[in-house]
Design goal:
This protein is an all-beta fold. The protein is built from no helices and 24 strands. Strands 2, 5, 8, 11, 14, 17, 19, 21, 22 and 24 form a 10-stranded parallel β-sheet that branches. Strands 4-7-10-13-16-18-20-23 form an 8-stranded parallel β-sheet, with no helix packed on it. The chain has a 6-stranded parallel β-sheet with strand order 1-3-6-9-12-15, with no helix packed on it. The protein is globular. The N and C termini lie far apart (about 45 Å). The mean pLDDT is about 90.
Length: about 210
Amino acid sequence: ADIVIGGILSTGGGGGNGNITIETTGVNSDITMNNTAPTAIGATGDLVITSAADFNQDGQLLFAGATRNATITAANNITMGIAGATTNATGGITTYTAGNNLAVNTIDVGANALSLTATAGSIADANGVSLNVTADTVDFISATGIDLDLSHAGTLNINQALATSGGNIDLENIDGSGGFTLLGNVAAGTGQVQLTANADVLQTGGTL
């Protein structure tokens, strides 16, 4: 059966402590988040969302307090609607993994790490010219392409950005003083790679 999250996810009352795990196991069972107020996750503990089919995020996830990890996985697609947003600047790691396509509206992890994977599909910009990702360090892995607008003042570190079956990689740091440092491989197979920044693009490791 499907799960619909229409209210606030919290533990301990009003953003307390503890882990939250939400999972579907039926082959066509989706998870949909459509809360209209930000879902504030408590002071400690992690969030794990696992969908046996699609994860549709049309609401907001907001992390507070100490280091928090967010792990969101879907066997098929992850789609962030125009109201879908995740803010996790607490020092933890935020991970989105889709078996097929991943469409990103807004994810803000501050000065922390973000990992996005679209195993058999693409990582796509879901909001046009608006900002998709704020992060210090990113890992992007897709099969058929990556297209995102990023922001980080100074240097945004790319551990890796791969389109394993071809397709194009198009990443832009839209911060007025932002550049890129390539720590690992940036490769699009038979596709093209385009990195756009307002400061230097430095390669310290991997291949481009």
